[in-house]
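Homework-ish question, so no full write-ups if that breaks the rules, but can someone show me the predicted structure for this set?
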Amino acid sequence: ADVSDQKYVMVVPISGHPFWVPIRQGAQDAADQLGVQFEFTGPVEFDNIATQNQMEQIALTQPSAFLTGAFDPSMSETIKRVTEMGVPVATFDSDAPDSPRITFVGPDHYNVGFQYGKKIVELLQGQGKEEGQIGLLTAINQTNLQVRIQGLKDYLSANAPAYEVVAIEDNQGDDQITAERTKTMLLGNPDIDGLVVINATGTGVATALTELGRKGEVMVVASDVFDPIVCGIKDGAIQTTSAVNTYLEGFLALKLAYEYVNNNLDGTPGADVGVSVLPPKIDPGMFFITKENADSFLVGSCS
Amino acid sequence: MTAPNKVVEMTGIEKRFGPVEVLRGVDFELYENEVLALLGDNGAGKSTLIKTLSGYYQPDAGQIQIGGQAVSFGTPHEARDHGIETIYQDLALFDNLDVAANVFAGKEKVGGGWRKMLGFVDRKAMRNEAREAVSQMAINIPRIDQEVSAFSGGQRQCVAIAKSVMWGRKVVIMDEPTAALGVRETGKVLDLIRTLKSHNLSVIVIMHNIEHVMEVAERAIVMRSGTRRGTVNLNGPQDRESHDEIVKMLM
Amino acid sequence: MTAPNKVVEMTGIEKRFGPVEVLRGVDFELYENEVLALLGDNGAGKSTLIKTLSGYYQPDAGQIQIGGQAVSFGTPHEARDHGIETIYQDLALFDNLDVAANVFAGKEKVGGGWRKMLGFVDRKAMRNEAREAVSQMAINIPRIDQEVSAFSGGQRQCVAIAKSVMWGRKVVIMDEPTAALGVRETGKVLDLIRTLKSHNLSVIVIMHNIEHVMEVAERAIVMRSGTRRGTVNLNGPQDRESHDEIVKMLM
Amino acid sequence: MTLSQTNTDRLGDAGGFDFKRLLLSRELIVGVMILITAIAATMLSPYFLTTANIKNVVIGMSIEMIVAIGLTIVLLSGGIDLSVGSVVALSAVVIALAFNAGLSIPIAIAAGLCAGVVVGVVNGYLIAYVGLNPLITTLGTMTIFRSAVYILSGGYAMSSIPGSFKALANGDLLFGLPNLVVLVVVLIVLFHMAMWQNVWFRKFAFLGGSEMAALRAGINVKRLKLMGYVICSVLAALGGVVVVARLGSAFPNTATGMELRVITAVIVGGCSIYGGRGTVLGAALGVLFLALVNNILVLNAVSVYWQGVASGCVLILAVLSDAIINRGKRS
Amino acid sequence: MTLSQTNTDRLGDAGGFDFKRLLLSRELIVGVMILITAIAATMLSPYFLTTANIKNVVIGMSIEMIVAIGLTIVLLSGGIDLSVGSVVALSAVVIALAFNAGLSIPIAIAAGLCAGVVVGVVNGYLIAYVGLNPLITTLGTMTIFRSAVYILSGGYAMSSIPGSFKALANGDLLFGLPNLVVLVVVLIVLFHMAMWQNVWFRKFAFLGGSEMAALRAGINVKRLKLMGYVICSVLAALGGVVVVARLGSAFPNTATGMELRVITAVIVGGCSIYGGRGTVLGAALGVLFLALVNNILVLNAVSVYWQGVASGCVLILAVLSDAIINRGKRS
Ligand SMILES: Nc1ncnc2c1ncn2[C@@H]1O[C@H](COP(=O)(O)OP(=O)(O)OP(=O)(O)O)[C@@H](O)[C@H]1O
Ligand SMILES: Nc1ncnc2c1ncn2[C@@H]1O[C@H](COP(=O)(O)OP(=O)(O)OP(=O)(O)O)[C@@H](O)[C@H]1O
Ligand SMILES: [Mg+2]
Ligand SMILES: [Mg+2]
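A: Not a homework solution, just the prediction itself:
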């Protein structure tokens, strides 16, 4: 069958953010392999109302399927509405479990936070610290990061109560602000020996440690994979960054949506009585990038 | 013949702006149904004095009585409620609005019937009344529904005069109403002041042109450097003696 | 005795604002070293005419010649470069600045020595010159370094006059310069106009007060409804004949 | 030359309707731009002129429409209010909390609107009675009340909203028109008429034209200013009510950045940021215009990276059209 | 009564220095607030008054300082520029691209600054010569140039910045003072002196005081306005140079929302949004004040959710202090 006129649309907020680049790439690669069209869109702001409006508007053009992240519980309503309009939705990165989405490809963010906790404790213990203070950097307007923080805190209280979160700062998602806030946080809490960056602002933290001359002294667990962060790892300012395999999120979400749209899995026993033909949840896996393997993740070059 | 009643009495008015003492204890009185001229060189404090009367400034010291009752105006709103209407020297028009809106600003006419219930204004009536009012001054205005920012100096002044004449109930204060007016228009405004008097209002008029003062005013108060220099009773345009007395006080 | 040269010659000037025809083909000439009075009732188009000369408005039709050369001013900047300086009727002062800044706006004095190299202004010199300039008008100004927004009507007018007098090189245009001035101050400004003449400048002065016109002007042009009604040569304050002629034209 | 002699004949009159002025009015210019955009959209995308899409656009912009009405009043009166986005969120969170506490729908709505009154009184008091700069003051309250939202919600999205409340926003009680659309249209018509005709609402235009002249004309300037901010905040709070009803959840970062978007739309619709000029209808058309432009870009799948270029250019073109058409008229 | 007779004695003169006026000057008020904040901070946190923290605050605010200088000029002249944040990002990306293309440091810097000139000319031309509303125009160019950043960078964060370039920002060539601090101080002093004393720069204040009076005073208003926007954009582009040098990377989302933050600081420092009032020194003090407030909140680990409340209140207090001290003087 000719599928070249099938269109899969990815809708995300803050669409200009580098975070989406690998996800987008994965979806694009899958689309190319399948010979379908792929389109990436969304508002430039972090605005749930705008994102949802946009999705409902696009639904009218009857694309084959949507790929989106549910960064807000109210996304469930929108997913329901567009599904009723005949456009199935596959979610990635953040799930909307009580919506009729066809599948979800993404990490369990609580677990990501849990892993952060494990990693930072491991790093601190590696330095021979039997107890420690930890600072967190996040963007408070990205409320979906709350779950990660919860996971991290839960790990600490359950498994390593000697390590404690002493400060949480809002970096507004900006590296400049991160640099300044991180420095201030470290100056105000000189006993902090570990930092966990919940969002993609590791560069600012690296800058802060470099400027304070405390590179390698304060352990840093960052999030996401961008050149500047990878360079920070090579440079020694950041110990590790958590990499959810976001490429796979895009790739699998599109591929699964394709299978669904083309009824390729209708042979699944029970499909006719409402058994989900797709796995409800797929974890693409996460791993930590370190100095040893950093080079494989560099897109451009460091100075 | 009984002594005439004082509509306005101000005693010992003082006003300073930072280091500058603008009024240094001025006494002032306005009788019922009188046209009073306020004279004085530039910067004497005339405008400041009438602004304290119209509630725009609050005096630092001194009393104000209206009709024998002590008052103290926090805003021009309150003075207006006491029947005092003022044309300020800088006119203070709404540049972005037309003549009718300027004349009726803050006191627009509500229409009848269903309009009354909704508080809807009656534009047509306002426009007609405004046209009537400015036409009394024989001023040449090309379009009455134009923004007043496009008006000539004299046209603007006439709009301000029309406004105060329409609203004054007890006292009308005019700060240099004829400064920008031509010969004919000035004549009309002097007529208008006489009409106000004939309607039982009192008028305070600030003017630099002594001939015009002699034509309309019955009494003149002369100010100098924030104090009251003196008072002259006037007896019509031919009264050379008073004229000379005023000139002497001014020099 | 040769015929005097024309400094300014305007022919067939027309100007309309939307539907309103404000100038309908006005001819105008100003001779060298002459004090010319421009008269007319309110809204006659006097201010509009001089604004086309000062580059603030561009005429819809007609020619302007300065010293025999055809010019066309796009902005007041260009007229100023031709030595034409104007006091506008609405003064157009910088309310947030003091007297010196107002007088020197756009043409501030650069200091000597190292200041010159850096283009640094000489505040002290400017303040002194500004003080000198306004004091010529015998005006009573409490503090010269105060924002002019606090000034009285007459004080503001004197600041505007000081400015034009300081900068005029060929022609000074004054749109109702004495409207807000007291008797004494008006006398000073009339003196000032004579001084300008004695410095070989030409002056165009718009005034409603015919007595004052007779005192300073040598010639009067009367306008009416956007056209030139006529011209009268004046021979000093006692020239009753010319006076009556002007009054006739105005009525 | 008696005083009663009038010369009304010299005072030209519009003689009824002034077509030229209507032609150059900002509302009409935006109206024409909307028409052009709509025609272009119809040609560019087969999906544009469908009931579903129109409904989508109209419902999508309803919250901004409601907020725009209030902002028009504040801008017209010479002020500005940056806190509207925070008020939308605050009202949404307050309503969600009210539902959490088991309160009924009317009481929850009242609680949300009350939040608006509180912010409005704070803004208005500081600006009108204390005399603070409106930009800074409302920037301050914007920050404060956004924080309040985070504190009240604990940073989490709340979604225990009764279905009957959601049905209010998503239903269509009247002639099959969505309730939201009916609400918005009624509000626009009401406020437009009031601002144009009602003796009290008209005072805002006087205030914005010249505060000093308004004061001297005997208008109670301070109280009027305060009321302007209160009305604006209450309308924003109503926007919050609609957000909750429509989305079925209250999200603490709801409507971040909305203030700038709505102010832009209002100015495109002919409001002056310096006060004294603007109508509710114009503001509504401004919101509609920007929503349509967005809709076209989305329907035609313009690349995200180029969407910014397109919408920026449209914005500039919108004010450019006004500048060109009214060239020379104002200056 | 000859004409040469002067009566200068009646013209009161300040007689040198006007202490009262200095006391009430906005700069001094902000200065005092900074002092109070600093004293409070010292008492609240032992870490506040350490070289490391001071250096941190000063370096942290350097980019906003540079942007604030340009914004002061534009605000003073009666305009506004919302595109500064986009210009910072644009310049940063252009520089990164130049390095990617193997260009040398001076050429890369020049390329970044050129991006600033381009934006400045576009803004200035549209506002000064076409006569468009500055708020809408710069909102439009803000959107357009942010898109340009995404298009140029392809959405990637770029980090192939030569180490010698990074060393420029992070080094300390002069007396051990960080280069960034030296640069910022020099710029502030230069521009403050120029705006205060230089005959050309002083024209901005005239323009902002009254555009009509400036025009009538023979100032080439259009050209001056254009130049204001160009200077502002070039300074913002310089901010972009500093960002790249400091972070060693160009991130397309850099400086989002910076415009509002800096405008706030500039207004806290005494600039009027209506033009005609404000100094570079005041603006710099405004930036410093807000940076200090932030610093205290973070040093004392105030909960993020309460930080908004605190900084909003401080903002309002800052303008309140001015209103109280100058009560009755202006109105
Ligand atoms: N708000 C103010 N702040 C400071 N000084 C002021 C203020 N208002 C007026 N003054 C000063 O007070 C004095 C009197 O001003 P006022 O306007 O009352 O004079 P006036 O008699 O009306 O003069 P004119 O005939 O020129 O209108 C002037 O020297 C003026 O500079
Ligand atoms: N910008 C404008 N737009 C529309 N009409 C205007 C404009 N400027 C002036 N007018 C009109 O042109 C006519 C002439 O105005 P102008 O100011 O030249 O009169 P004038 O002779 O100076 O009067 P006055 O003695 O009152 O100052 C007036 O009717 C005025 O309303
Ligand atoms: Mg006065
Ligand atoms: Mg005139």
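Now go work out the reasoning yourself. Hint: The beta strands of chain B are 6-17, 20-31, 35-40, 61-66, 69-71, 84-87, 171-175, 202-206, 219-224, 227-233.
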